[in-house]
Amino acid sequence: MTERILMCAPDHFEVAYVINPWMEGNIAHGDNKAATRQWQALARLIGKVAQVERITAAPGVPDMVFTANAGLVLENKFVLSRFRHAERQGEEAHFAHWFDAQGFEVLTLPRDMPFEGAGDALFDRREPLLWLGYGHRSDQACAPLIAKWLDIEIAPLKLVDERFYHLDTCFCPLEGGYLMYHPAAFDAVSQARIIARVPAEYRIQVSDADAMNFACNAVNCGRSIFLNRSSDALKHALRSRGFAVHETPLTEFMKAGGSAKCLTIKLTEARQPAAVLAVA
Ligand code: ARG
């Protein structure tokens, strides 16, 4: 099956406020033309292995370009995000409308329960399990509702480094059951939870330098991986597991605290069959 991925062109993208440390000092320091070139290059690369769908960018919500935060998709269900910051809450209606028009069942959390979608909720690729990052943006309190709606087990992970404020900035489940992640972004209990759940041979540890280059914020489609930048050591680790690594600069989006994965959301999200576990 061809994967479908939703992106939003940076027509109205700029750093207009500060809601994460990456945005500090960057207000009005962006170059929208450069951002557009970088975005188009990413869309073109992804378009070689998946079908790229687009949602029209709306004025007044510059971070709408980060479609990972639209919500969480599983099969035909879509859990709409509830943004923590007022600056992004205007995006919710646009995403709700688009997913509804596409035939998804749109599930809505209470207004006062922050949840930032596929930025903080990532499916394991080895077993039916949803990892939920909390501590900066999403609230752990949303876990029971999402577990019930999507009929899936949820493993919470506490994020403790404000540079890695969304789970997808430091944690990336990959095809074949692998997991690329930056351990220091998590508290000790969460690090232990990851180790207990993901066998050593499936874990790929990412250094601070690679994490700061948003290497964990990678788009993975089949055996292709798209990311801003990776060290030779990380490229080697990924290639030796059968992945093709494609670098494409996304520096304009890093000024807002985002990169490749944040700019996408997978619309074709199938349930991971439990049987894979028995084979692994
Ligand atoms: N400026 C945006 C924010 O702080 C960046 C979002 C990046 N998205 C992501 N999935 N990590 O919310």
Could you explain the architecture of this structure?
- The chain is of the alpha/beta class.
- It has a single domain (4-266), classed as L-arginine/glycine Amidinotransferase, Chain A (5-stranded Propeller).
- 25% of the residues lie in helices and 21% in strands.
- It is built from nine helices and 15 strands.
- It has helices at 32-47, 86-89, 91-101, 143-150, 188-197, 208-212, 232-239, 251-254, 275-279, and strands at residues 4-7, 51-54, 71-74, 77-80, 105-107, 121-123, 129-134, 153-158, 171-174, 178-181, 203-205, 219-221, 224-227, 244-247, 265-266.
- The strands form five sheets. A three-stranded mixed sheet has the order 2-1-15, with helices on one face. A three-stranded mixed sheet has the order 3-4-5, with helices on both faces.
- Strand 6 and strand 7 (129-134) form a beta hairpin.
- Residues 19-20, 23, 63, 66, 68-69, 88, 119, 166, 168-169, 256-258, 262 line the site of arginine.
- Residues 19-20, 23, 63, 66, 68-69, 88, 119, 166, 168-169, 256-258, 262 line the site of arginine (ARG).
Features:
280 residues, alpha/beta, L-arginine/glycine Amidinotransferase, Chain A, 3-stranded mixed beta sheet, 25% helix, globular, binds arginine
Mean pLDDT over the residues: 97
The CATH superfamily is known as L-arginine/glycine Amidinotransferase, Chain A
**Gyration radius, in Å:** 17 Å
Q: Count every helix, treating DSSP H or I runs of 4 or more residues as helices.
A: 9
Biggest sheet strand line-up: 2-1-15
Low-confidence stretches: none
H/E topology pattern:
EHEEEHHEEEHEEEHEHEEHEHEH
How big a fraction of the residues is strand? 15-25%
Give me the secondary-structure category.
alpha/beta
Give the termini distance in whole angstroms.
23 Å
**Count of spatially separate domains:** 1
Structural shape: globular
**Fraction of residues in helices?**
25-40%
CATH class: Alpha Beta
Number of strands: 15
Overall CATH architecture: 5-stranded Propeller
Unique ligands = arginine
